[in-house]
């Protein structure tokens, strides 16, 4: 142990003398740290970079030019130990500007809330972070930056392009380092939200805790406790439900959503689907619906969203994008597992009563729906020969929905 400490002291001392490599943090993710190592000499080969951290030594991998990456152990600090060779064949070492690299300052969270004003379509982005925000832009258009007691606000009244948008926020990480963070947004007819939506607020009614046994699937566990697989995915933050493992603890319960920004209305009488944002009509799409109104009118919620879904038909697996996979390119699972909203491989059937109960859309339309609406958005299934109202609150079913969400909010207040 004394030898290691003496070795480190000598290295740190040597850094202050030679200082032959400029080291800066390029990127920090949940799994890796990337350093940029710039030699202050004519290097004949890429330097070898070793990292000393709280758990010992690791070697950083040279991934491209002067970029080096190593697996992140959630370190707060690391000491880079670098050996290079100059054109004379001499070994060169040393680090600038500091022998100890502070990783913690790159781990500060930055959370945003994206809100479109339904009246004038201006965009407000609320930024909550410990970083100092320098600037913000969307699609290369600079936004107005306002500092508040609660954080920062970015604002623009400029029109955004339809489809995907890129929000870039520059923050000051240290005196020497400015970091740019990108967020993917999506705009539909002037209304901007997160790409693939945000999470609608929800409350969890917990039943118990389950320890996964060898060979168990999430579907089997959900069936055992009479809950939906989507409930377990949301409660346990399972991005990949197939990757549960023996010994893993899962919270078992059900999810109840409250009121969010996006809503969907399906009209069985006209074979049309409408999207609303902040209770204001955004866009109407043609759809195919079930034979004999097989999806009952009522209120449902979007519990899961899948890109390029596989189809399981009477025990047969049909792969994504197969010509006989009738789900098309997207699948939005509703709170009643029998029903969903999805694409199609038979676009000529849109507008007809042809499905087994689900709502079918053109693939290009369901991709827009998937990109725009929030997980947990309510889906109102109605039967009316009138046009969709401009305000969501004008449909009779909204009163029932409002009553349900108020009850859920009361549960949240009660804890």
UniProtKB/TrEMBL annotation:
Pathway: Cell wall biogenesis; peptidoglycan biosynthesis. GO terms for biological process: cell wall organization; peptidoglycan-protein cross-linking; regulation of cell shape. Pfam families: LysM, YkuD. PROSITE patterns: LD_TPASE (PS52029), LYSM (PS51782). Gene3D superfamilies: L,D-transpeptidase catalytic domain-like, LysM domain. InterPro entries: LD-transpeptidase, LD_TPept_cat_dom, LysM, LysM_dom_sf, Transpep_catalytic_dom. Keywords: Cell shape, Cell wall biogenesis/degradation, Glycosyltransferase, Hydrolase, Peptidoglycan synthesis, Transferase. GO terms for molecular function: glycosyltransferase activity; peptidoglycan L,D-transpeptidase activity. Belongs to the YkuD family. This is ErfK/YbiS/YcfS/YnhG family protein. Residues 208-252 form the LysM domain. It comes from the Bacteria. The active site is at 342 (proton donor/acceptor), 358 (nucleophile). CDD domains: LysM (cd00118), YkuD_like (cd16913). The keyword Ribosomal protein does not apply. GO terms for cellular component: extracellular region. Residues 262-382 form the L,D-TPase catalytic domain.
């Amino acid at each position: 142990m004394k030898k290691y400490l003496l070795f480190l002291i000598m290295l740190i001392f040597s850094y202050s003398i030679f200082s032959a490599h400029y080291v800066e943090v390029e990127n920090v993710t949940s799994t890796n740290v990337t350093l940029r190592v710039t030699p202050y000499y004519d290097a004949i080969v890429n330097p070898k970079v070793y990292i000393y951290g709280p758990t010992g030594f690791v070697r950083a991998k040279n991934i491209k030019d002067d970029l080096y990456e190593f697996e992140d152990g959630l370190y707060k600090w690391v000491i880079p130990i670098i050996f290079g060779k100059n054109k004379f064949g001499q070994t060169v070492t040393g680090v600038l500007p500091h022998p100890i690299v502070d990783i913690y300052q790159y781990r500060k969270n930055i959370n945003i809330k994206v809100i479109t004003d339904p009246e004038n379509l201006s965009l407000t982005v609320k930024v909550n972070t410990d970083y100092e925000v320098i600037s913000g832009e969307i699609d290369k258009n600079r936004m107005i930056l306002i500092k508040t007691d609660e954080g920062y606000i970015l604002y623009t009244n400029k029109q955004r392009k339809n489809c995907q948008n890129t929000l870039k926020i520059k923050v000051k990480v240290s005196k020497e380092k400015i970091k740019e963070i990108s967020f993917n947004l999506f705009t539909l007819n002037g209304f901007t939200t997160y790409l693939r939506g945000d999470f609608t607020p929800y409350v969890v009614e917990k039943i118990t805790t389950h320890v996964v046994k060898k060979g168990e699937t999430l579907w089997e566990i959900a069936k055992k406790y009479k809950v939906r697989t989507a409930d377990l995915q949301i409660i346990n933050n399972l991005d990949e439900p197939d990757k549960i493992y023996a010994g893993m603890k899962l919270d078992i319960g059900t999810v109840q959503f409250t009121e969010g920004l996006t809503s969907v209305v399906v009209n069985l009488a006209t074979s049309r689907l409408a999207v609303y944002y902040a209770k204001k009509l955004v866009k109407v799409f043609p759809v195919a619906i079930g034979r004999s109104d097989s999806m009952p009118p009522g209120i449902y919620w979007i519990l899961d969203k899948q890109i390029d879904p596989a189809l399981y038909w009477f025990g047969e697996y049909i792969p994504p994008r197969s010509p006989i996979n009738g789900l098309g390119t997207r699948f939005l699972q509703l709170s009643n597992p029998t029903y969903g909203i999805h694409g199609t491989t038979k676009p000529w059937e849109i507008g007809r009563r042809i499905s087994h109960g689900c709502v079918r859309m053109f693939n290009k339309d369901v991709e827009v729906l998937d990109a725009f609406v929030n997980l947990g958005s309510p889906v109102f299934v109605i039967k009316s020969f009138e046009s969709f109202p401009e305000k969501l609150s004008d449909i009779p079913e909204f009163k029932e929905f409002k009553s349900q969400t108020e009850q859920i909010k009361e549960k949240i207040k009660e804890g």
